[in-house]
Amino acid sequence: MKKIITLKKNYEFKNVLSKGKFYIGKQIIIYLMKNREEKNVIGIAISTKSANAVKRNHIKRLIRANYQNIESRLKKGYNIVFLWNKKANIEDADFHTIEKDMEYLLAKADIIEKSKI
Asked: Which residues lie across from 60 on neighbouring strands?
């Protein structure tokens, strides 16, 4: 499985969150900003007020797995930050609802190629 390149430093997250465009879905919020590289770099953040560590890590794994599924269809050259929507119930999170939400938001941002199904 191909390794995902992630944002690690606080200033990298702040840069995308302050200067990037954002799209709000039912469960996730996506911030996008162009980078100067030919690859996508992602970051995932969930507030500690949302849930305990076990549930937060579960959500991160679901987001990462969905991103891996659609990564090949994305345009290259973006920093992408995924945030959990505080208004969404963390108990309602599952793979397919996050997948639908992510595809909808990335299509709205016009960085995903439409599926040919």
From this structure: none
Place of tokens 């999170």: 93
Is the per-residue pLDDT at 110 higher than 80? Answer: yes
Which of 80, 102, 87, 14 has its CA nearest to residue 47?
A: 87
| Alpha carbon distance 7, 11 (integer Å) | 9
* Tens-place pLDDT, residues 16-71: 999 999 999 999 999 999 999 999 999 999 999 989 999 999 999 999 999 999 99
Question: 10-81+89-108: what fold?
Answer: Ribosomal Protein S5; domain 2 (3.30.230)
The structure tokens listed for 26 are: 């039912």
Asked whether 109 and 29 are in contact (CB, 8 A), the reply is no
Candidates 3, 73, 96; CA nearest to 41 is 3
